[in-house]
Amino acid sequence: MPGMKRAILSVLTLPLRPLVRGHATVFTLHRFRDDARGISGYPPDLLREVLGRLRKDGHRFLSLDALADGLASGSDSLPGP
Question: Is the pTM of this model over 0.70?
Answer without folding.
Answer: no
